[in-house]
## 1
Amino acid sequence: MAHLDFDAVTKTFPGPLTALDRFALSVADRELVVLVGPSGAGKTTALRIAAGLERATSGSIRMDGRPIDHLRPKDRDLAMVFQQPALYPHLTVRGNAAFSLSMRRTPRDEIDRRVAKIAAALGIAELLDRYPETLSGGQAQRAALARALVRRPNCLLLDEPFASLDAPLRAELRREFRASHGRDPLTTLFVTHDQDEALALADRLVVLRAGRIEQVGTTQQVYELPANRFVASFLGSPPMNFLAGKLMLQEGRLWFERPDIRLKVAPPMHASLLQYAGRELVLGIRPDAVTITEPGAANDDAILEGTLIEQEFQGDRWLVRLRTKSGDMISSLLRAGRSSIGDTVQICLDTHQLHFFAAQEQGRRL
Ligand code: ATP
């Protein structure tokens, strides 16, 4: 067991781009940290530097407090699982799973016990005598995971391990992996660009963009209190709606105003927002806090007018695109309303579910 620290790790490749910029992160013993971010954010680079497959340009990696930068990958006691499972083709699933323990001369009965336990947890007990070429993608990825878990490394590094699987299988493996981590936690750094996977798995989430950390926190903290507009729009599907406007103080109350809407800011947000009275800012609201009613219907929420321009049935909900005077908004509704495409509707915003951000692009949370 180990804790893993990245100390201001920077990685530049030839060219102007900095793949990782003073990346600082501590993964606690037995913690499952998920690195999430768009393509090119630097996620794989961080993992490869931890594994010793890539050297940092500056900064250092420590395990249990000791620098490991000088150690070769095989001397770091880390296990890595990639998007494409890397199995020894001449060994069975059992042989692959047992490989590193055999190399360490672990007693046979101990190896058998560990392999059987992990294989059962990952649902591959029946496949132990099969060779990799006879496995499906999902089975091969389970075998690769088993090989990583059986040896109980100091730290587990996973790079999009489920990305090549179809959606139901991905969800199943994700559940099994989370359950296996719950029973027997290893210090784990997991890379994905899939926000659902990130939210489902992480003890803590690290949101990366262009080599920099945008936010670190529990999944709930990051989802409910996004640090800036980038994080707010990256996590959540469909993404948060944004409306630019001005914050006004009138008779002791704060209002958010723009030409087509004037809404009261809920009192709990006053203390933090009062200092921005008179300033331009951006309001954020998630699609599930936006509902629609027909014109004239009574409603206590803040209302602006728009036209329904698209609706999409998603099985468990409807996604509705609404055109307002100053841009489109998305509403996520549990039931279809009576309105049809082209209708003028009232768009209702739940004023208890508002976020405010600085007006600059990707502005920070206020
Ligand atoms: P993805 O989700 O697409 O895998 P990522 O977040 O894992 O992206 P990285 O693979 O870490 O991103 O890449 C970060 C940046 O570093 C990218 O702009 C990439 O082009 C660049 N990069 C990565 N490896 C190399 C390399 N060997 N040579 C040059 N540039 C590289």
## 2
Amino acid sequence: MSRRVLVFDSGFGGFSVVREIVAQLPDVEIVYIADDAAFPFGDWEEEALRTHIVDLLGDFIARYRPDAVVIACNTASTLVLADLRARHAISFVGTVPAIKMAAERTKSGLFSVLATPVTVRRDYTFDLIAQFAPAAKVTLVGAVHLAALAEDRLAGRPVDMDALRAEIAPCFAERDGARTDIVVLACTHYPFLADLMAEVAPWPVAFLNPAGAIARQLGVVLGAHGDDGCGGSAVGPIAEFVFTSGRQAPPDISGILDRALAMSTR
Ligand code: DGL
């Protein structure tokens, strides 16, 4: 009997977390919720997005009765994790900017956080920097188009490399002879562009994708819970797809998922 986990994102970015869950916890039954009706979250006003996600996930939790929920989205996690934990007696695993990891690994003392425009404005992000990286020089970069570029890539469409270069350019800072050496990928869509980012980066940096740590945390959380099975129409390792727009999964959904599972996310 496997455990049932809801994985939630605005689109296919959460696949960067799914690939790690599949690798580390192959018996978990995944119900993937793509809130495509609301994509991109990065454009939403804060309070409206909070209410929207709390209500929506409340409905899905009642319907699927999962053992755990993975909020595979930084934009959502930094906003609603506390509200969700206060309302539901199940485990939530969030995806928040990997600032602690970057602070531990940076050699130059300069790193950047690349995220949606709203994530880099959140108190949650400022608090992580104050708590874990007080001595680092942190550059916060809000990217407007990157999540859509990642959706293009996953769908097999060409990526606009000039747009990609322009979006990541502000991540590269130089100060007193030191240079940025880490870019934190603080949106779950971005690992699917990491190899292309490396191609257009002005100098080599490490692109930090925390998805492995999120899957490990899910394993810890599930270890403390009982089992529950679920049915649904499976696509590869995903038991069921839900698109909030009400549309059916696109005909090439297996291709999108295969591409996501096979892609190098560094
Ligand atoms: N994948 C989401 C994140 O991690 C956001 C993408 C969006 O703007 O919808 O922040």
## 3
Amino acid sequence: MVSDPALALLARHIRDVPDFPKPGILFKDITPLLADATAFRLALHLLAERLAPLKPTMIVGVESRGFIFAAPVAERLGLGFAPVRKPGKLPYRRVTETYDLEYGSGTLEMHEDAVAGQRVVIIDDVLATGGTAAGSARLCQKQGAEVVGYGFVLELSFLHGRKALGGHPAVTLLSY
Ligand code: AMP
């Protein structure tokens, strides 16, 4: 149970979908939260408020559900936004990283000059094993950026994803 009323509102808009995309995975579906104007605005407000003290100069969003939260948080903080994308999507020169995740592995790319020299916060919807976020951090560091923290709507704490984040602060609104 979540005792804070604001967080309880968010929690009521997360739908558990068993055995998606594979048997044994309990998928945390954020689409009910996105569909509710109050819950969506609250999630953006809380992320922006809690990430501002890290003093980022740029917000990085992870394809694709991370974009939904990262771009509006960037706008709220008066900052630019840079995308981490799946392979073959970005048109300009790229940096590439392979990463592990809860159900498989994959490759991520950024434009090689997307966040050079910036203090970045990396945003995604869910922190699971942390492989995606850690891979995104390496992409930023390859460009000489400093990763000052992470933001997630929710974390699956039993997967210990924070251990993959190198001790940098991770803001999560809900923990399961
Ligand atoms: P990870 O790299 O293991 O931390 O996985 C994070 C990425 O996978 C995020 O982009 C999430 O959107 C997605 N993800 C992993 N596990 C789940 C889950 N149980 N429910 C919803 N999304 C998940």
